[in-house]
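SEQUENCE-TO-STRUCTURE ENTRY
===========================
Question of interest: how does this chain fold, as expressed in C-alpha cells?
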Amino acid sequence: LQRWKADPIFTRALLLCFCDDIQPNWHRGRQSYIMYHGTTMLNAMRIMTEGFSPSFDGMLGPGVYVTRSFEKASCYPLHSNGEMLAVLRLNVKVGRVKKIDYQGHPLQKTWYEHGYDTAWVPPNCSMVNSGLEENCVYDPSQITVLDVIPNLRF
C-alpha cells in the first residue's frame, strides 16, 4: 500500500488502470494534436475565413468532427456531387478528453455537459466501420487550420 507514494512509475500504472480518460496516445500533459477534417474545397475556404460551424448532432452529439487519420479524413465528405475536395490539416487543443468506446455509452452524446472538451472514439472499438479513431470537439475555437490540402479522391 505504501508503494504508490514512493514509486512514480507504479503510481502512473495504477492511474492508467483506473482512469478511463487516460490513454497512451492521449497524455494529459500534451494539450494539442495535429488532426484532419475532410470537406469540399468551397467549405474549406469558408472555414478559413469564418471558422468551423459545429454540427448539431452526430454519433458523438454536437461539435466539429476531426481525426488524427489523414486516410479517414480524405474519405469525407461522403457525397461530393463532383465538387473539388480538400483535407484541412489542423492544430486541435483537445482539453479534457472523454473516451467513448461503445455504442450506447452513457455520455455518448452528452460528454460536453459533464465538463469534457473533446470526445474520442479509439480505433478498433467497433463504433466506426473503418476501425479508425474519431474525435468530436465541442468548441470550434479550440481548432486552428494549418493547411488546406487538395483531395484528389475520385
About this structure: Helices lie at 3-6, 8-18, 41-50, 70-73. The first strand starts at residue 32 and ends at 40. The chain has two domains: 1-29, 31-151.
